[in-house]
Amino acid sequence: MKIPKTSDIAGIINKIAPIALAEAWDNPGLQIGDPAAEVTRVMVALDPTPDVIDSAISSSCQLLVTHHPLIFKPLKSISSANPLGALIQKAIKGGLSIVSMHTNYDIASGGLNDLLARKIGLSSWTPLKVTSTGSLVKLIVFVPVEQLELVRSALFPFAASQGNYRDCSFATEGLGTFTPLEGAEPFTGKVGALTKVREERLEMLILRAQLPRAVKALLAAHPYEEPAFDVYPLMNEGEVLGLGRTGYLSEPVTLAGYVGQLKINLSAPALRYVGDPNAEISKVALCSGSGASLLREAARSGADVLVTGDVKYHDARDAQDLGLAVIDAGHFPTEIIMVHEITERLGRALVMAGYTDCKVVACQTETDPFRI
After folding, report:
1. 294: closest CA among 309, 274, 278, 279?
2. What does the pLDDT read at residue 366?
3. Which strand ranges, in their side-by-side order, compose the sheet holding 123-144?
């Protein structure tokens, strides 16, 4: 039976939503827990609330994966006299680790904003506010034929996606030579003797920001005492990533008609909107959760409407001044959709990694704190 550790699952989550993508103010990743603890049951939820943590512990889960982090800012103390301290202590006593995937999941390709774009009927979407354009390097390493898969697997988490394709690499076989000098401890061959080895030249595109971690993983996985590898800067630009999305409806609808569609698609009890109900909507901007700060980006993009949550009164007035319609679909309805998606996606990834005895379940206790 192959059982993953907390760190193994955190590594899978980092492939779905790389922590390097997170906003500077954010705090995703491992919030509480032992990276080496074994995990046979995982719960996925939007928020690490007391009810959710109770549900995870009573369901015999060792790991809770949430969108919103439990800990946002550095703590000066962990006291049961305050709600956050009490939650932290409850999780620790219950043997529950907590990992969050927040703005890194919002921004990531295939992340929450892409999920929301599909949910509200968009096509051909792009980031609303670009936060990074991946700078790429080519990493080339020479590996004994027998160890190729070991090293390649170690580097896959850092390989840049190419369009809709991931885990991209190229390998070609050749003959490597070296003579170990005095003091060397060669994996193969003898000190002072010329050694010839059948090796593979393994090539991968790596995001420049991920290069230090990729090299560390390479050195840990490679069997040689001194692996030979090269790094080439490239003119190629990597994937453009960012907050929110802009996309198009299959056919124009009125603002009022689109509001009605969203209420159904997002299972929202009610929605507020700003704008002429008879206005034609074709291009849509969106940002899951709280996205009113992107009003001007949405207007500059040429969008007819911005779909988001947590819209304040003065945000609505600003939207009117910009001539931009806004649909406030609520923070909860625009983000709770991640629970089912991550439950399914993480479950598939664990099975693909050989962890067939680890079960992923969706939290069933969460509700929108607002009542209509």
Report:
1. 309
2. 97
3. 170-178, 195-207, 123-144, 229-254, 280-290, 305-309, 325-328, 272-274
